[in-house]
């Protein structure tokens, strides 16, 4: 029933008790997930688990599995040598014990993959990580409960393995050996700088990469509005700006890059927690589609691309436009120091970069909270 071309054997509820949550799943709108479990040889072990206790399953619906899961990622999971990654993804959707929707609280729970997911309520909606719980308590049996979600939960270890596969063997040297945990108190800029320096040096990259502020080059752009007060960015704040970007329309690839293919959203939060303010120049999906293999495989890879699109100051559409009108041409320092981005006024808007390779301010003020600003642009810089 998969539309990706990777066919799976059909499974039935034979052998499972009719009162079992697993049997109910086999007759539900979540059979794609169950077919993957059958392919991974997980059904019999799961039956033993529910025979001794109960479980909670966060289940993407068939429509999502068929239409929304990246075909390249699904093919990666179904390759014969990647059965361990498939099992990790599937186990990442299962938590020991029953968590009913009415018992939802902001906390981290450990899944059968041994990695954790964060469950939380945001604006009245229950979520698992960034996925919305669209069908709470959809299946409720004595041995387990199923919540329908609108996303696939991918553990960090599998994200990194897929990135290595997608970018080629050279990407092994570009990825951090361990992705940093999100610490609400933040990590120091020096520590963050060292993390990136270490993996760039491993790649024999000559690119300097430091998280620090250089002296402002006069004339300085006009600052955007801010309370100026120190802010502690929580997981909910990260969810807020990434979800706003993803739901805006036309920026889903950048949102995916921030939280799934890298941990860069957490790194931005850490900088905010250190008192810094940032502006993300987000290329739209059309621009991201034009990224070449050479760009993706360049030293620093995805992180370097992201860092070049983050200004080390807070700017809104108004402050950007006022700056280029007043000074004609301004220079912004990026997180990828010492690289800078020039901006000027073009046809009544702001252009970043020079000539035909320059990007125009396309969708302004997608997200602004006084600490992180997201401005949509028309090209990858």
Overview of this protein structure:
With 381 residues, this protein is α+β, with helices and mostly antiparallel strands. It folds into 2 domains: 138 residues, FAS1 domain, CATH 2.30.180; 206 residues, FAS1 domain (Roll). It is built from 15 helices and 14 strands. It has a 7-stranded mixed sheet with strand order 2-1-7-6-5-4-3. It has a 7-stranded mixed sheet with strand order 9-8-14-13-12-11-10, sandwiched between helices. Strand 10 and strand 11 form a beta hairpin. The two termini are 40 Å apart. The N terminus is likely disordered.
Question: Key terms for this structure?
Answer:
381 residues, alpha+beta, FAS1 domain, 7-stranded mixed sheet, 14 strands, disordered N terminus, FAS1 domain-containing protein, FAS1_dom_sf
Give me a quick take on this structure.
It comes from Selaginella moellendorffii (Spikemoss). This protein is α+β, with helices and mostly antiparallel strands. Helix content is 36%, strand content 21%.
Strand and helix layout:
Layout: H1 21-26, H2 31-39, H3 43-52, E1 55-60, H4 62-67, H5 71-78, H6 83-91, E2 94-96, E3 107-110, E4 116-122, E5 125-128, E6 131-141, E7 144-149, H7 156-167, H8 189-202, H9 235-248, H10 252-261, H11 264-273, E8 278-283, H12 285-288, H13 293-297, H14 301-308, E9 310-311, H15 317-327, E10 329-333, E11 340-346, E12 349-352, E13 359-368, E14 372-377
Parallel strand pairs: 1-7, 8-14
Antiparallel strand pairs: 1-2, 3-4, 4-5, 5-6, 6-7, 8-9, 10-11, 11-12, 12-13, 13-14
Helix pairs in contact: 9-10
Domain FAS1: 17-153, 238-381
InterPro entries: FAS1_dom_sf (IPR036378), FAS1_domain (IPR000782), FLA15/16/17/18 (IPR044654)
Protein name: FAS1 domain-containing protein
């Amino acid at each position: 029933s998969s539309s990706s071309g990777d066919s799976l054997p059909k499974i039935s509820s034979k052998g499972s008790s009719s009162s079992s949550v697993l049997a109910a799943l086999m007759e539900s709108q979540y059979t794609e997930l169950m077919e993957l479990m059958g392919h991974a040889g997980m059904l019999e072990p799961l039956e033993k688990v529910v025979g001794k206790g109960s479980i909670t399953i966060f289940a993407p619906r068939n429509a999502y599995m068929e239409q929304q899961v990246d075909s390249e990622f699904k093919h990666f999971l179904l390759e014969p040598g990647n059965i361990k990654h498939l099992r990790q993804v599937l186990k990442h959707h299962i938590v020991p014990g029953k968590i009913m929707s009415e018992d939802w609280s902001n906390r981290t729970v450990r899944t059968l993959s041994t990695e954790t997911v964060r469950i939380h309520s945001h604006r009245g909606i229950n979520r698992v990580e960034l996925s919305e719980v669209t069908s709470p308590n959809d299946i409720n049996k004595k041995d387990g409960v199923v919540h329908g979600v609108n996303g696939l939960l991918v553990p960090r270890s599998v994200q990194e393995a897929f990135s290595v596969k997608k970018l080629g063997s050279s990407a092994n040297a570009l990825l951090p050996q361990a992705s940093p945990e999100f610490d609400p108190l933040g990590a120091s800029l020096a520590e963050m700088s060292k993390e990136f320096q270490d993996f760039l040096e491993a790649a024999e990259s000559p690119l300097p990469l430091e998280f620090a502020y250089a002296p402002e080059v006069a004339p300085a752009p006009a600052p955007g509005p801010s309370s100026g007060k120190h802010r502690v960015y929580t997981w909910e704040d990260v969810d807020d700006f990434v979800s706003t970007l993803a739901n805006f329309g036309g920026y889903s690839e950048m949102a995916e890059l921030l939280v799934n293919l890298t941990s860069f959203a957490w790194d931005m939060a850490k900088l905010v927690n250190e008192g810094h303010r940032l502006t993300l120049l987000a290329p739209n999906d059309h621009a991201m589609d034009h990224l070449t293999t050479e760009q993706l495989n360049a030293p620093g890879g995805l992180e370097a691309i992201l860092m070049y699109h983050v200004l080390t100051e807070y700017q809104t559409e108004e402050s950007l436009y006022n700056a280029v009108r007043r000074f004609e041409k301004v220079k912004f320092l990026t997180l990828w120091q010492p690289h800078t981005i020039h901006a000027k006024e073009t046809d009544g808007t702001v252009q970043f970069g020079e000539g035909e390779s320059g990007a125009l301010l396309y969708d302004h003020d997608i997200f602004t909270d006084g600490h992180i600003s997201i401005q949509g642009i028309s090209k990858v810089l």
